[in-house]
Design brief:
Blueprint (H helix, E strand, L loop, with lengths): L1 E7 L7 H12 L4 E7 L4 E7 L5 H19 L8 H14 L4 H11 L1 H12 L6 H14 L3 H30 L8 E6 L2 E6 L8 E5 L7 E12 L1 H4 L5 E3 L4 E2 L4 E13 L5 H11 L6 H12 L1 H15 L2 H8 L4 H21 L2 E3 L2 H9 L2 E5 H5 L5 E7 L6 H12 L5 H12 L7 E7 L3 E6 L2 E6 L1 H6 L18 E7 L2 E9 L6 H10 L4 E5 L4 H11 L3 E3 L4 H13 L4 E4 L6 H6 L2 E5 L4 H6 L2 E3 L5 H36 L4 H19 L1 H4 L18
Parallel strand pairs: 12-19, 12-21, 19-20, 21-22, 22-23
Antiparallel strand pairs: 1-3, 2-3, 4-5, 4-6, 6-10, 7-8, 7-9, 7-10, 11-23, 13-18, 14-15, 15-16, 16-17, 17-18
Helix pairs in contact: 1-2, 3-4, 3-7, 4-7, 5-6, 6-7, 6-12, 7-13, 7-25, 10-13, 11-12, 12-24, 12-25, 13-24, 13-25, 14-24, 16-17, 24-25
């Protein structure tokens, strides 16, 4: 027997990410058959097995789901305006000449959160913090019978707390926006049937159908259809992106127009959007030396502020002046603006394909003056690419040589075979089918193609099979660092195919940009020999190359630069780069790099070096904003203290100056999110060089 519960949860309304998490939690409960949580209305509908659960059990599960989300999300609670309103009402009651009991009662309600924060600071942290300072000032005003000033002071203090909570939530939600609005259901083709399944039931390999206006819920490849996709939530792109067969699409983006059939590659927590959100939400964003020092410095000023207030009272006997001094602090603005700037920068970077794992990474990258690059897979594509096809027989075309080689190599999995097949595909060549083949590891492949025996391999392989190769190669070389395979048919040498692990197309521009940004040392470090390393370095404009370097030696190179006083960034993608990444001041890897490199890295790029100067630029801007915010907080407070001591600023103006500077610093810290996000980083995989 089915039971049905419908409830309206105010906290869910307008929060799609919470709606999705609550729905996921309820689905895991025994006896629950179906769940629908609507973020637009805040409604929760649960169908359940009445023989297993009662209505009370389901309602308890709904409450537990909300509580579990509050505990696990790590997000600041939704800010309340009630203390602010109570403070204003307290002041209004005085102006309206209401009984003192009314105005002071409202003041007591308004000051509740402040009392709680101050008490926790004294009892749990055993510190005299800014909240203790604020409470002392409000208490003194109340004891003097000045409910008007006390009420307005509490209102302004709580307004500052409200803005702090809002800005913190805003920067956190910029990360959660990657997941917000996610549809819990998807249309999936299973056989000849189209099924509406929960997203959690979609498997890699499933074909997901997405219609115009719907959210894409998987990362995958378009196998049929065509459409315009809005990727703004994930990449920051302002323009629609056309997707057709073969195009890559991502979860949390929206199909604005058209219809797509998508082969799911990544679902649920393995999608790019979820990985971005999880990394950012787990990141320690409050760990920069600058902000830690500033916060400690501000807290140390609390006791001197008490002392200054006491001295002013002793000298002037004016309690108003001493109370006004107590209303100034430096920590609130720092407490608001520094983490907001860090989180906003992390979210802005994530929208453009750069994952920064914490505040320390931002600070260190902003300070870095040296970068060590791995070669293979970092400065280069990390796989061979055909660079040249040379016919060596009369009346033989490049296309014929490449097509025969691709036919022989077609179903082999080694990297050179893949490069040859890919080059033929990029030239749109008609590759004949092979009838039989035999592969000799380390030498080459023999195949039967259109009745002819085709050999593809090195010089030794040709000689073993009766093909005289070397005399025909005089003067036909390519770049000195290129490797080659030979192609023969029925014992006659037809041509040579040269290949190399060529530099990424964006690499030279990135190196030039980093030089313009003031980096003093740009070094390529590789395990390859000099012959392979030097041409790549020369092509990219790198002067310093370290070749034949073992993994442990890479770490020594990092430490040697650090010993000279340099702040060193290391970028690499392989297991062999991990020691250097671990010793670096800040480490960078790629999303497609090895697991250990990604885990070690402080910053993870999409598969393009273009994200590196972007990360540097954002990090330097963030540290500039933090310094700017320190000035925004410090200058009004120092000036305000002097005015309060001289009697030129009363309690209300003092509170306004202090909290106004905090609000200004908080809003300034959001600038990375409020400004133009710019275009997303273009991945190298989208710009592969053509074969030949």
């Amino acid at each position: 027997m089915k039971g049905r519960l419908r409830a309206r949860i105010r906290r869910v309304k307008g929060d799609p990410a919470l709606a999705l998490r609550l729905e996921s939690y309820l689905r895991r409960q025994d006896g629950v058959i179906e769940v629908r949580v609507g973020a637009a209305t805040g409604s929760v509908v649960v169908l359940f097995d009445a023989s297993v659960l009662s209505t009370a059990d389901v309602m308890a599960a709904v409450r537990q789901g909300q509580a579990a989300d509050s505990e696990s999300s790590g997000e600041d609670p939704r800010p309340s305006v009630r203390p602010l309103l109570a403070g204003l009402l307290s002041a209004a009651a005085v102006l309206l000449e209401a009984p003192a009991a009314v105005s002071f009662g409202l003041l007591a309600c308004a000051a509740g959160p402040l009392v709680k924060r101050a008490t926790e600071a004294l009892t749990r942290e055993r510190k005299v913090t800014v909240d203790v300072l604020d409470l002392s000032a409000v208490g003194l005003l109340a004891l003097r019978g000045n409910a008007l000033a006390a009420g307005l002071s509490v209102a302004l203090i709580e307004a500052g707390e409200y803005v702090r909570s809002l800005t913190s939530r805003r920067s956190r939600r910029a990360v959660a926006d990657l997941l917000a609005g996610a549809d819990p259901y998807a249309w999936v083709l299973r056989g000849h049937r189209k099924l509406r399944l929960a997203v959690s039931d979609v498997q890699p390999g499933d074909t997901v159908v997405v219609y115009s206006g719907q959210l894409i819920v998987v990362d995958g490849v378009v196998v049929a259809g065509r459409g315009q996709v809005d990727q703004k939530s994930l990449t920051g792109e302002s323009r629609q992106v056309e997707k057709q067969v073969g195009g890559q699409v991502f979860a949390s983006t929206v199909l604005s127009d058209g219809k797509l059939y998508i082969r799911a590659e990544h679902v649920g927590a393995s999608t790019r959007a979820h990985r971005v959100a999880q990394l950012l939400q787990a990141a320690p964003s409050y760990d920069t030396r600058a902000t830690n020092y500033a916060r400690r410095f501000a807290d140390r000023l609390v006791l001197p502020t008490f002392a200054l207030s006491a001295c002013v009272y002793a000298l002037t006997g004016d309690a108003g002046r001493s109370v006004s001094i107590l209303l100034f602090d430096f920590a609130t603005g720092i407490r608001v603006s520094a983490p907001t700037t860090i989180l906003a920068t992390m979210a802005a970077a994530a929208r453009r394909g750069v994952i920064i794992k914490g505040g320390r990474a931002i600070e260190q990258l902003a300070r870095a003056d040296s970068i060590i690059f791995d070669k293979t897979g970092t400065l280069t594509f990390g796989r061979p690419v055909v660079t040249r096809v040379v016919p060596l027989a009369a009346a033989t075309l490049e296309e014929e040589v490449l097509a025969l080689a691709a036919a022989a190599e077609k179903r082999l999995t080694h990297p050179v075979a893949s490069a040859i097949v890919r080059a033929a595909e990029e030239r749109n060549l008609a590759v004949p089918e092979r009838d039989d083949s035999h592969f000799t590891i380390g030498l080459g492949v023999e195949a039967l193609v259109n009745g002819s025996v085709v050999h593809v391999g090195d010089g030794r392989f040709m000689q073993q099979n009766g093909v005289s190769a070397l005399p025909h190669l005089n003067g036909q070389g390519a770049a000195s660092s290129d490797s080659l395979v030979l192609v023969a048919r029925d014992g006659e040498l037809l041509g040579a195919i040269y290949y190399a692990d060529i530099p990424r197309r964006e690499a030279r521009d990135v190196i030039a940009r980093l030089r313009q940004m003031g980096f003093r040392n740009l070094v390529m470090v590789t395990g390859d020999d000099e012959d392979a390393a030097r041409p790549v370095a020369a092509a990219l404009g790198l002067d310093e190359v370290r070749a034949n370097v073992f993994p442990e030696d890479k770490a020594e190179i990092v430490r040697a630069l650090q010993a000279k006083g340099h702040v060193v960034a290391v970028i690499g993608d392989g297991i062999n780069d991990s020691p250097a990444l671990a010793f670096a001041d800040v480490s960078v890897s790629f999303r497609g790099g090895s697991d250990i490199a990604r885990e070690t890295a402080d910053i993870v790029l999409e598969d393009s070096l273009a994200g590196l100067p972007l990360a540097v630029e954002l990090s330097r801007r963030a540290m500039g904003l933090i310094q700017q915010n320190l000035a925004i907080v410090a200058l009004p407070n120092v000036a305000g203290m002097a005015m309060a001591a001289s009697g030129a600023a009363g309690p209300l103006l003092s509170t306004a100056l202090n909290n106004g500077s905090s609000v200004a610093a908080a809003l300034n810290g959001l600038r990375p999110l409020l400004g133009s996000s710019g275009p997303p980083v273009v991945m190298s995989s989208d710009r592969q060089p053509e074969g030949g």
